[in-house]
Amino acid sequence: MMKGIGIDIVDISRLSEKVADKILCKKEMLEFKGYLNSNKTRAMEFLGGRLAAKEAFLKAVGVGIYNGISLTELQVVKDQFGNPTFKDNQSCFLSITHDAGVAVAIVVVY
Hints:
Layout: E1 4-11, H1 20-23, H2 26-38, H3 40-61, E2 76-78, E3 84-86, E4 92-99, E5 102-109
Antiparallel strand pairs: 1-5, 2-3, 4-5
Helix pairs in contact: 2-3
């Protein structure tokens, strides 16, 4: 049974490296910095995708970012098949995509 659904879209061009510490947890930040060293475009897609995923999750569970949950408390990881999911929350489906300067994420909580 589906309990909630959330979707979010992020204009990647509106992001800067300076906001990464407000969005990413420590492990995500390490991955982001690795991308920055090799491919800034990919780094910003990563940041936009993580922001969209986390905001979509909060929408799906009915909690806003101003209600006590920090974006840095959520961590997007890859499952055994390489698909994105949230660490310690296996009761949701997450899909992230980025193209043409935007990142989009959808979360279904079941």
